[in-house]
Amino acid sequence: MLQALSRQHYETATPIQTQAIPPALEGRDVLGVAQTGTGKTAAFVLPSLQHLLGGARRTAEPRMVVLAPTRELALQIAEETGRLAEFTGLRVAAVYGGAPLGKQTDQLRRGVDIVVATPGRLMDHLDRRNVRFDSLQILVLDEADRMLDMGFLPDIESIVRRMPERRQTMLFSATMPGPIQALTYRFMHDPARIEIENARPPEALHQQIYPVPKHLKVPLLIDLLRGAAVESTLIFTRTKQDADVVTRKLREAGLSVAEMHGDFQQKERVKALEHFRQGHVPILVATNIAARGLDIEGISHVINFDVPDEAEDYIHRIGRTARVQAEGVAWTLVTPDDESQVAGIEYLLREKIERVRLPGFDYAVPVPDWAKPSPATRRKAATGGQGAIARWKSLTR
Q1: 219: Cα within 13 Å, side-chain hemisphere
Q2: Looking at residues 81-107, what average pLDDT do you find?
Q3: Fewest CB within 10 angstroms: 34, 157, 286, 292, which?
């Protein structure tokens, strides 16, 4: 393990690693709450590898299962686990939807030590009797809040029921809403609770809001991308249709762009991510599918083309930059209709976000007829702010 750590250039433990690894090495259940990009994967993988190396070897059944909400995150965790386990002889399999069942089935039946899976695809393999958990010793739920948001709770409950009650359980989450608290009581025994700057963006992250009329969002985005020292930029849109439109407009403006959302096949998503990660394209346009868990180094800017509907999603989006103490910039384009969401975000952050205007940009371009809001939209915008604040007060009590 030390050889693998040296090869991966691990030198200094992050706060979540410093606090989570000792109780995990003792075999205790661990509840870890930390923002994205703080090194949570190594915090549960390293003590787990140590534990597995000290136990029985070469069983046909997995001894550790990691559940993750998205295929991208599952693949990423499996890759990092494989790198850290490179010299141990422990076998790792990634099990996720969108990939052929056959290859995964062969891996599971040949025998693996660690399975990293999305809940839905793991349920498929359980129902087909491709995997059993009689030898399971460690269960990890990563990005647990997102798994609940995505409706995976029934699958998680069904999976856990098939596991031995005597096991080590580690749950990691960027936020700790009520349903996650309930999970800890049901699945864990006296967990060591570790909380690192919950629901706060990194200190090295410079946040700014750009107020803009809705019909000028794309022109402003293009001017921002052309005018700044944008090295690697992740742009978030609310819908897949918005992602398609923004990608097309940026390409028409001569910018090099990759795109990723839920309608893309797995191979297309992996290809887009790799082109962006390797610097072949400097801009990636994505929906919330990319907001969590993607470990992409060197992102200089995150741009919210659309303000997220949920304030906590804002934290996860902007957490793609300024990772592991690096510096980063987060820009959010805000129309008058977005003020209710901004109120919720600023309440969650407990601070106002700086509002700026782009010098030289023509904000006076008149609104074309097609872009004028309906009376119903205007009424909703006028009454939405207090409701957002009340909602976030209830969630953050």
Answers
A1: 12
A2: 92
A3: 157
